[in-house]
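> forwarded from #structure-qc
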């Protein structure tokens, strides 16, 4: 992947208290933020990531662009859940932070979590998307929690901002999978994860090499959680494959049995026909 400066915009509106994502929308978002940070830095050590919160009274930059996750954590601790969603102003402040990046070679990207209703109209969002596209800023949107309300607006926004598939919309309804797990397998991060794999078909999350997405030494709890999740997903896929093979085999047996029955019926018909011919003689 290319060299990037990324601003992560988190939603700290009142809606983030909801517990439809483990353990709350806000906590699920923070775990995903940590995962995205590690992914970006590990995919290219010269990448930088910043953080802002755009709920409450208005956007607040929590950390300028950095490679130090400690600064991101420090910014998170200063955040309070309050107020409502300020989507447009959040993106504009994030764009301003990217404009002041030290390394101008870095491509500009905003990753924004949207977990509460967007108050802007589609027309306002269209103007914003065109402005961001003109400034060569890619925007990845993580749409969760209020997807039934926001999806149509965000799809329109994404269709305008997207330039040669550089921006993504990931919609994640509540479910058994954790927020960061869905993000990890989405197009938003798959390119980053695949970029340093040397053509391998499986992501090396915990191999201890330079291609790890999560460094177990930096965050053993998240690394363990992700490892267990991947193992469970692998086991589930293996069970489904085994059941599918079993069902296919059972269906084949039924087909063969049906064919044998048809053959027996045809043979009986032939035998009866022969008997009738002999009686006629």
């Amino acid at each position: 992947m290319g060299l990037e400066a990324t601003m992560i915009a988190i939603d700290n509106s009142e809606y983030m208290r909801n517990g439809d994502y483990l353990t709350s929308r806000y906590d699920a978002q923070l775990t995903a933020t940590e995962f995205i940070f590690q992914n970006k830095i590990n995919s290219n050590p010269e990448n930088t990531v910043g953080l802002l919160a755009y709920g409450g009274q208005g956007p607040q930059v929590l950390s300028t662009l950095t490679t130090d996750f400690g600064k991101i954590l420090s910014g998170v601790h200063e955040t309070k859940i309050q107020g409502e969603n300020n989507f447009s102003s959040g993106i504009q402040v994030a764009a301003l932070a990217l404009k002041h990046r030290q390394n101008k070679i870095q491509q500009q990207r905003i990753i924004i979590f949207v977990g509460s209703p967007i108050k802007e109209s589609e027309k306002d969002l269209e103007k914003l998307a065109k402005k961001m596209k003109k400034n060569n800023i890619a925007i990845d949107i993580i749409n969760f929690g209020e997807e039934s309300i926001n999806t149509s607006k965000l799809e329109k926004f994404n269709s305008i901002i997207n330039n040669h598939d550089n921006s993504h919309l990931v919609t994640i309804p509540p479910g058994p999978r954790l927020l960061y797990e869905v993000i990890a397998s989405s197009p938003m991060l798959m390119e980053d994860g695949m970029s340093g794999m040397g053509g391998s078909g499986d992501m090396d999350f915990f191999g201890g090499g330079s291609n790890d997405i999560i460094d177990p030494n930096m965050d053993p709890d998240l690394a363990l959680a992700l490892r267990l999740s991947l193992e469970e997903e692998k086991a589930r896929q293996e069970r489904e494959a085994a059941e599918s093979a079993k069902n296919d085999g059972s269906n084949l047996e039924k087909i063969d049995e049906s064919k044998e029955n048809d053959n027996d019926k045809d043979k009986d018909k032939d035998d009866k026909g022969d008997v009738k011919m002999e009686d006629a003689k």
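QC bot note: The longest strand covers residues 107-114. The chain has eight helices and six strands.
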